[in-house]
Design a protein that fits this description.
DHOase; globular; 8-stranded mixed sheet; TIM Barrel; Dihydroorotase; alpha/beta; 17 strands; 29% helix; 4-stranded parallel sheet
Length: 428
Amino acid sequence: MPPSPPPLLFLNARLVDPGSGSETRGGLLVADGVIADLGQVSSAPDESRVIDCGGDVLAPGLIDMQAFLGEPGAEHRETIASATLAAAAGGVTTLVATSATFPAVDDPAVVDFVLRRARDTGRVRVLPMAALTKGREGKEIAELGLLQQAGAVAFSDGARSVRNALVMRRALTYARDFGALVVHFAQDPDLGAGVMNEGDFAHRLGLSGAPREAEAIMLDRDLRLVALTGARYHAAIVTTTLSLDALRAAKDAGLPVTCGVSINHLTLNENDIGDYRTFLKLRPPLRQEDERKALVEALSEGLIDVIVSDHDPQDVETKRLPFAEAEYGAIGVETMLAAGLRLVHSGDVTLPRLLAAMSSRPAEILGLPQGRLEKGAPADLIRFDPDAPFVVDPAKLHSRCKNTPFDGALLQGVVSATVVAGEIVHEA
């Protein structure tokens, strides 16, 4: 059994607890993998490693609820080793792996494989999300109970919607009986078949558009099924005011629903596609600027619960194509925090609220003990300077693929240390 890491004593830190929304100055002591003391730390073991933060932020590590990790079956795009290396560099201490692998995560043996690979090669925590239907085909419900016992934390078919309402109703009912969380990608696959947001800009580029109604129609159906079944439901990524209105009404009615948004849809809009930039071909597509601003406002007020990276590595062969033929997806786990800090620097979102959507709120939804600065909480921590500038250089990112939408962008927020269970896994 490996020896436990030595105690860590962080001094002169700006302690931000997103769970309570508090910000204080002081220190924090880590011992035996948990937070042993914080605030005015009075004493520490002699063998402690002392780290002077110099006023940097010390906060709970980020929890990314949607990331493609490549294994099994797509190791040419990403591996658990490379994805967790990128996560550690970006301050993410827990990755929820999507079920969109080859084979899909629809069998307890595949769940076990992901967990073992993460244990052997991962730098941060990896939690598998299992498929909602067998083969992610939307036809037959997967064995949710067995998958949950094997270690699946939620159920989703990835970026595929369950088209059949009866199948979706049965899946929600089945999940409810196990207290399981259903994470669904709400987009009508027929109406939403366009390659970018429908509107004037798509017409000028000569590209087929996906209307925002494609998302709203599917989400509205799902929310009605949640009311019918009482199951816990999480809308994976919302991008439109139509969806926000529906979710607000559902939450006001007391339904057990939550929602997420990708960092791309919070910080970019359809105009950033510019001259057919395929790294910004995403599913769902980037929307208009007024929709982006509405998402930011919904995040600030707490209507949107979670920010995800929607990390989706694609190799050069699938991206260096005409826009209509290129694959969907962008990497994002390593730049999620820095991109989100754009909203803090612009004054649109407070730092505690941003961090809550990336740590404490995902932990609450998934039932995890992480995401808080409290005595006895797991010592999953990040130290970062929110004002430190850097230019995104794809060649320096740790993912196997380099399809970042922030190529060459000037961002702020350098992560100088990432701690998982009391052990430093990244140090700049």
